[in-house]
Design brief:
about 270 residues; 10 strands; 6-stranded mixed β-sheet; 4-stranded antiparallel β-sheet; alpha+beta; 8 helices
Length: about 270
Amino acid sequence: MEVSELPAPGKLNLFLHVLGRRADGYHELQTVFRLIDRADRVRIASRADGELHFIGPFGDENLCLRAARLLKQQTSVRSGADISLEKVLPVGGGLGGGSSDAATVLLALNRLWKLRLEREDLMTIGAQLGADVPFFIYGRNALGEGIGERLTALNLPSASYLVVTPQVAVSTKEIYSFALTGQSKRLTIPPFFAGQGANDLEAVVVDRYPAVAAQLAWLKQRCPQARMTGSGACLFAEFATQAEAAAVHAQLPSGMSGFVARGLDRHPLDDWTD
């Protein structure tokens, strides 16, 4: 059985507050995750011989393959899979591409291998791969707390986004090592309003990556509430309509790139654990 080009959608952090450092070395966060329709593409075919074969960037270290290995290990399933990945989301951009790829693999193999695991089970497995993986399995826009794994569903209004993609890859581990805590307070959510909060990692990235600083300044001139997503380097501005986002996208100067994306209410594979 083969599944063709399953989507692995990106996400935006509409705000990201770094509240403190935990005893385990991670940071206590508060964020709002928003799914967008820009997506990597994953192809998977089940194998009867139990082997896992992967074609795509980063080889054995790719989260797609690591997700398949972990699921196989934790369920003792005898089946295998052929997995290939087409990257669309930028690497090191803060859009959650690798985590989303892993989540799509877990959702797909749960169905292909007829494991019938509940969503919560897949989220627990996904958390071993990365803090954002449970969100993509959760499948809905959400308030994220803890290290991002405590999720509360949020209904967000329809919106379109201009996402600017500076051609730099930012190390999440590096940026968090410089993060200042306690700059922002925990917000009471819901409700959530566009432009609420800030990204506490933005100043750290802007200070270390001149390209991000210059492109954010350009975007803020046109959209004062523009900000960075995640630990960077991608930047975004929210618009009520796709036409408004496209109009600013058309103004991008030479040397800057980006895309227009619609906000999603649910993950395209949201019903795959029902």
